[in-house]
Amino acid sequence: MEQLGLFAAPQRLFTCTPSKLGSYEDCPRLYRYSYIDRPAPPKGPPWAHNSLGASVHNALKNWYALDPERRTPGALPTLLKATWVREGYRDEEQEQKAYRRALDWLEAYVAGLDPADDPVGVERTVATRTETLALSGRVDRIDQRGGELVIVDYKTGRSELSEDDARGSRALALYAIAASRVFRKECRRVELHHLPTGRVAAHEHTEESLGRHLRRAEQTAADIVEAEAVMAAGGAADEAFPAVASGRCRWCDYRSVCPVGRSTDPAEPWAAVD
Ligand code: SF4
Hints:
Layout: E1 14-16, H1 18-26, H2 28-36, H3 48-65, H4 76-83, H5 92-111, E2 121-129, E3 133-145, E4 148-155, H6 163-168, H7 170-183, E5 187-194, E6 199-204, H8 207-232, H9 237-240, H10 259-262
Parallel strand pairs: 1-3, 4-5
Antiparallel strand pairs: 2-3, 3-4, 5-6
Helix pairs in contact: 1-2, 1-8, 3-4, 3-5, 7-8
Bound molecules: iron/sulfur cluster.
Domain PD-(D/E)XK endonuclease-like: 17-259
Protein name: PD-(D/E)XK nuclease family protein
InterPro entries: PDDEXK-like_dom_sf (IPR011604), PDDEXK_AddAB-type (IPR038726)
């Protein structure tokens, strides 16, 4: 059978999301703790900034689930209360302040939206395949403007975002590729919507720049497959998946189990929302 090239076994696709690839690019050890080691190492306590982000994302998702005539700023307190995640805050006072702030962000944000607009997708999973990847991911929002699709990603962190962040985001580029294939429409524009400031950082991709992101994603997947093969062949797991120290370690879920992370000062779970 081997002589019959036509019947050669197809190459196995690497199943991934942008965040899975991103975790390896940030730190191979973080990838190993998250996706390979089983039982998974224990994570640290929940982060208040993740709770805040999830609450705001879910409130916006549910705002779009309302009938257009009910999509008003007045609907937001009920929506935000219903989706509020309480974990990680220092105390009730900090949590209440964060809730008030999140509501202000949402009210200002939806005031700039047309309630009659129905996005093509809200919290929509898109997926596609390449020769080596089976890629999927959930997009905060997919708009249709002027016959083209636009990828919208909500951000709730403290730091402001620039056009470079939109241009450099592999996740946004991969979402654009997948959305374009799923909906059979052009999708070049990607946007980061920073709710604390109302600022939108956008980038218009070209076929070439999307292709570059895709090649980088395929290269990362190839690196992961190679590291996994080294480990499966009995190579040292810590060498196959090295720990890469960075400012991220203080905020890493696996800081307490990682020898590199343990040597850094831990961030308080609520520090990023103060
Ligand atoms: S603590 Fe730092 S080095 Fe260790 S896994 Fe996390 S990000 Fe990587």
